[in-house]
Design a protein that fits this description.
By secondary structure, the protein is an alpha+beta fold. Helix content is 52%, strand content 12%. The protein is globular, with a radius of gyration of 26 Å.
């Protein structure tokens, strides 16, 4: 039973306006999708509820949860965008249309396009919340993939493994990344998945007993040193993550020390280093296996101390030490930082952070149609800004270049993604497809409309090139070209035609 109280129990707030918005979206979506069923035979609304629940579990706000309930409404029901805007306002309409737009991006299963697709998702999403809704939608689709036709299962699972899971990783949302990877793994590599499950059954049970015994010893040592405020548990490595690591270690599980790890969570950063000292004072660490991601966080914001120690009875154990805030960041990544003041009309103007929108365009749309940079910028982006103050403008360009490479992403009519330098024209696109297409180009359409071939392309354009047998390139095309490939082919063909 899809009980709205289940969503309310996950909220970080008890604000009555937030709860009223979520309940309104719940009821509106339930009514609009009445009679719709999924491949499994269950009501389609079950999928929308699961998506909204996944969003709520990430700690997102009421607006994002409401958009989760409504994310398929314009595309799959008779509800028009004007009606949605009238009922829920421009911000929710913006999020819903953003998710719809991302849903139209086709995956062609070609490794050549995977990185382009990942970048395209981020580039086309003007608001990180759009990506989070899409990831939560994909998670439930993966959880119910068994009801999809077999040939479609492989395409969706590969797309998840190669596009969606890396996006979750880039945003630092470990919880989503792990679940998406492990669900897709069983479809993309079924035999390896089964073999690994068998291997882990034996090794995992043995490791579990070993960790429980070691956990008692650590608790005793911490108590002897008057440390009482801590939480200790252990985590098992995700199956797909383990598979990737095994592939680098000749599939020898004995060479992997972090199949499972003890995790100690404490209130403050000084506690982390104090506990590290206590552990190293009692057990010998493996040389080269101490990693301080608190002093030097990973690029996606991950912070923790990792140390691998000899347990004293022939075993080797990894211990991770972090604060509660770090643990929340590790699991929920950028979602843990998106404390949007949803509906607020106050602008945030911090000039030193405006460049962040080039990397992670986290914008919020108010009723006045303006947009604002999220007030709570993720920790790892803040660190980049601090570094940027010292490194200057070159660093900003390097980061933008690394993330987008100042490129745009456009489609062929069959949905392939072509990435080109910013300000490229139709001519560049034609030659990027094939030399013969460029040489025989007679006209072009962008998004279904005829355009001049010198038209500058925009992110997300769908371009169709018309060719004629007797068509030839012209020297007038060269000034319209951004790519050296196009210029070179035009000059070569002109020379040949002399």
């Amino acid at each position: 039973m899809n009980d709205i109280k289940e969503i309310f129990s996950l909220l970080n707030t008890t604000d009555s306006n937030d709860m009223a918005l979520i309940e309104k979206a719940y009821n509106f979506s339930l009514k609009a999708h009445t009679g719709h069923v999924r491949n499994s035979g269950e009501p389609y609304f079950n999928h929308l509820f699961a998506t909204a629940k996944n969003i709520a579990e990430l700690g997102m706000g009421a607006t994002t949860i409401a958009a989760g309930f409504l994310h398929d409404i314009v595309e799959d029901t008779s509800v028009k965008r004007e009606e949605l805007e009238k009922e829920f306002g421009p911000e929710i309409l913006f999020l819903v249309e953003g998710v719809t737009k991302l849903g139209k991006i086709k995956y062609r299963g070609t490794t050549r396009y995977n990185e382009s697709l990942r970048k395209l998702f981020v580039a086309m999403s003007q608001d990180i919340r759009v990506l989070i809704i899409k990831l939560c939608d994909r998670l439930h689709n993966m959880q119910t993939l068994q009801y999809v036709r077999q040939e479609k299962q492989m395409r969706i699972a590969k797309e998840t493994l190669e596009i969606y899971a890396p996006i979750a990783s880039r945003l630092g949302i470990k919880k989503l990344q792990r679940e998406l990877e492990d669900l897709a793994f069983s479809y993309v590599y079924p035999q390896e998945y089964k073999d690994l499950q068998k291997l882990l059954k034996t090794k995992g049970e043995e490791q579990e007993r070993y960790l429980e015994k070691f956990e008692k010893q650590i608790k005793k040592h911490l108590a002897e040193n008057n440390i009482i405020h801590f939480r200790i548990d252990h985590r098992v490595k995700g199956l797909y993550s383990l598979f990737k690591k095994l592939s680098q270690k000749d599939m020898d599980i004995e060479k992997i020390y972090d199949i499972s790890a003890l995790r100690i969570t404490v209130p403050e950063i000084p506690d982390c280093y104090r506990i590290l000292g206590i552990i190293h004072g009692s057990w010998r660490p493996l040389p080269g296996r101490i990693k301080d991601y608190i002093a030097s966080p990973k690029l996606n914001g991950y912070r923790s101390i990792h140390t691998t120690i000899f347990s004293g009875d022939g075993g080797i154990i990894e211990v991770q030490i972090r604060t509660e805030d770090m643990h929340r960041e590790a699991e929920y990544g950028i979602a843990s930082h998106l404390s949007y003041k949803e509906g607020s009309k106050k602008k945030t103007t911090n000039p030193s952070l405006l460049w962040v929108t080039k990397i992670l365009p986290a914008k919020n749309h108010t009723e006045e149609g303006t947009s604002k940079v999220a007030a709570d910028i993720p920790h790892w982006v803040k660190e980049l800004v601090e570094y940027q103050k010292e490194a200057g403008d070159e660093f900003i360009e390097d980061i933008k270049d690394d993330f987008f490479k100042e490129r745009i992403f456009v489609f062929t009519p069959i949905g392939d993604v072509i990435d080109l330098p910013k300000d490229s024209s139709v001519v560049d696109f034609a030659y990027a497809i094939h030399t013969d297409i460029g040489n025989k180009m007679a006209g072009a359409k962008i998004n279904g409309k005829f355009v001049a071939i010198n038209t500058t392309l925009q992110n997300g354009d769908c371009v169709e090139v018309e060719t004629k047998k007797n068509a030839k390139p012209s020297s007038k095309w060269i000034p319209y070209c951004k790519t050296t490939v196009a210029k070179r082919h035009i000059r070569s063909e002109l020379e040949k035609n002399k």
